[in-house]
Amino acid sequence: MTDRLTAPFRLSTWLLCAPLLWACAVQAQGLRPSGQLNLPRSTAAASSPVQSTADFIVALVNSEPVTNNEVRQRLLRVEQQIAQQGSAMPARELLVREVLEQIINERAQLQQATELGITVDEAAVTQAEQSIAAQNQLTPEALRRRIAAEGIDINRLRNDLRNQILLQRVRERQVDSRVRVTDADIDDFIREQQGNNDLSNLELNLAHVLVVVPEGASAERIQELQARAQGVADRARAGAEFAALAREFSEAPERTNGGLFGLRPATRLPTLFVEATRSLGTGAVAGPLRSPAGFHVLKVIEKRQSGVPDTVVTQTRARHILLRTSAQLSQADAVARLAGYRQQIASGQANFEALAREHSQDGSASQGGDLGWAGPGQFVPEFEQTMNALRPGEVSAPLVSRFGVHLIRVDERRQTTLSQREQRDIVRGMVREKKTEEALQAWGQDVRSRAYVEYRDAPQP
Question: ∠ CA(133), CA(164), CA(10), 5° rounding?
């Protein structure tokens, strides 16, 4: 896993302003071997009247045609993605225009890639196909069977993958390589986030005690309940455990959780609570506060501005055994071999470290597979997700990633405070991502402005 700090392969950003390939929809569904793919079928496999519409040119991009079929097929994928996300479906006329603009922008960028001599070989396409299979916990052969069962042409899949990789490479050459992040950029970002009082950037974790005031309560009863809430607040300020106070006195639903709301944006909390705590530090107590429900006592457990990295993170120390697939070792054989190692470890016939030293095809092999202490984001997502689900001492089932097949064991976990340098490294990545997005948008607009686009007949989805 020597490439663990490398940004993961991303097929696309799932937004209307970015490419939406149906091949990526396979990945986005979290495909499992027992599941059913719900992908739009190919024209040959479908029988609906929409699919049988005669094709025609809807636009020219530097004399290269965009056809109605392209728009229709992309539209189906976009609509499916929106439905899967549970989002409100935009008006179809608007969606058709957005999809057409996507395709036009992509076509212009692909043409620039060709002009720059950027190419994608078959090996890269195959690797991308294997990556999709790995992220969906399938072998490449199983992925192809699933795609074929949905009536989708594998050659179209590979062509879409080739174009997506080509788009990624031209963007990397024209945009990513030119983005620079200075120390001044980092300082400006930190000052901006810390000095931003906008509630949309504030996140709070509050603990809460509610003393309910019944409707129609007498003045004497209200005074009695206020005194009870005041007593809770006084005891909390004196150092009593707030969770115990919540379980004893609170009548709110979160009492069983020690009164904790959990970290959430300030915009999702009652205005009364936010106004009472936004100027308080961690550990401070507010209240009693009166609302129509009764009297509230609040304690600030955690407070931060979104966009500024946490100072305390959970780190994991793990080991792994990596087998890389090749012509001599298929993915299925690698999975079977690692499953055998796992069984040997569980039965006490072998230990993880010795197997890693003997068999792992990774730089960590000489250390018994030890990957050292790692924080969030240091491993590729499929590896990190499996690792995070393990308890210390537990060994995973064989995991397929873009690097090969792994067996993972978690040794320890700890909470650690990031050094100032580590925090700045995280901010540097955040600033780079922000500047890259801005530069990518500007580059895309420039490419589009220099392309000759002629609109023909309106799309008929």
Answer: 55
b/e map 305-323, b = 16+ CB within 10 Å: bebbbeeebebbbbbbbbb
Residue type, 453: V
Residue 426 lies in a domain: no
Give the N- to C-terminal CA distance of the chain in Å, as an integer.
45
> Can you give the CATH number for the domain in which 220 is found?
3.10.50.40
Least confident of 15-19, 101-105, 311-315, 365-369: 15-19
Structural domain range at position 346: 312-417
Last residue of a domain, one of 271, 305, 339: 305
Q: Residue 405 carries which side chain, given as an amino acid letter?
A: V
**Torsion (CA) 224, 230, 235, 237 in degrees, nearest 10:** 180
Q: What angle do CA 406, 410, 413 make, to 5 degrees?
A: 145
pLDDT tens per residue across span 170-227: 998 999 888 999 989 888 887 776 655 556 667 888 989 999 999 888 999 999 999 9
Residues 396 and 262 in one domain: no
Angle between helices 331-347 and 352-359 (to 10 degrees): 150
C-alpha dihedral sign at 11, 15, 20, 24: positive
Kindly state the helix (H) or strand (E) to which residue 73 belongs, with its residue range: helix 68-85
- Residues with Cβ within 8 Å of 431's Cβ and at least 6 positions away in sequence, in order, are 181, 185, 186, 189
Contact predicate 211/232, CB 8 Å:
yes
Q: How far is CA 361 from the centre of its chain?
A: 28
Q: 29: burial class by Cβ within 10 Å (0-12, 13-18, 19+)?
A: middle
Cβ atoms of 201 and 193 within 8 Å: the answer is yes
Q: Residue 166 corresponds to which tokens in the numbers above?
A: 């080509």
Task: Tell me if the pTM is above 0.85.
Answer: no
Are the CB atoms for 265 and 203 separated by under 8 Å?
A: yes
Question: Per residue in 108-121, is it b (16+ CB within 10 Å) or e — as a string?
Answer: bbbbbbeeeebebe
Whether residue 239 is found in the same domain as residue 357 = no
* Cβ contact 421:82 at 8 Å: no
Express each pLDDT in 103-125 by its tens digit.
999 999 999 999 999 999 888 88
Tokens representing 152? Answer: 């989708």
| Separation of alpha carbons 299 and 297, rounded Å | 7
**Partner residues linked to 388 by β-bridges:** none
CA-nearest of 64, 73, 76, 136 to 104 is: 64
